[in-house]
Structures are given as structure tokens and as C-alpha cells.
Amino acid sequence: MDYAALGVAGIATLVAVTLLARRIGVATPLVLVLVGVGISYLPGVPPVEVPPELILAGVLPPLLYGAAVTVPLVDLRRNLRTIVSLSVVLVLVSAFGIGLLLYALFPNLSFAGALALGAVVSPPDAVAATSIARRLGLPPRLVTVLEGRAS
Asked: What does residue 42 show for φ and ψ, rounded to 5 degrees?
């Protein structure tokens, strides 16, 4: 697979979908996911396998940094207790809740496996949370708590 051609096509698609999302008034991350799923079902499109190391080292850090750097430090300190409690308690409750649900739905799945899957899907998407919160015009304190909790 030619990663240069894939990168150019990906960036062109990203720009086009971002402009489309703004025009129709829908959160950009949601439209990007829908377009990605749609492209994956097109006949003739070869499967793309991106090395996990590329995502972990090259894509994820800038996304998290971009979401974290926008949180004002004064607001973060003011809401630190709420942010920390949501970050720890809510992720634990989500992981165990999803794990228990998966364990109940899939009898062949071990409890440890179900809990591991719950832990994988329970952390929030920092970029989507920030984008959607700002677009909805939520109160500034709530946006700060969501941004701090997701970062």
C-alpha cells in the first residue's frame, strides 16, 4: 500500500467532509465516522491496514494535546475535583457496566475478557467531546469539565 497516496486521499477527504459538516450543521467527528464506514463498504476499495504504532505515536498525541491545550488553566484548577472524580469514577463504572453487560450477553466470553472490552470502550473521545460541547453552546463551566475529563 502506498502510504503517500493514501495520505493525500485521506487529507482531501478530511477537508471535503469537514466543509460538508459545517455546511449541514452536524458535528465534524460524526460525519467523518459515517463517511469512513461508508467508504469501507465501497466495492473495489482495498482494505487499509495502518500499523498501531503509527496511530499511538503519530496521531493520538497531537489530538489529545489539541484538546488539552484549549482548557484554560484557571478553569481547570477551579473544577479539578469534579474533573478528577468524573475521570476516575465514571470510567470505572462504565468499564464495569459494559463488562457486565457483555458478560451477560455473550456466555462464551470470560469475565476478564468482557471487562477488558469494557475498559477499551469506556474512555471518552476528547476531540469529539470538545467539538460537540462547543457546537451545542453548553455553559462554559460544563465545557471546561467535559474538556478536562476527556483530556
From this structure: -70, 135
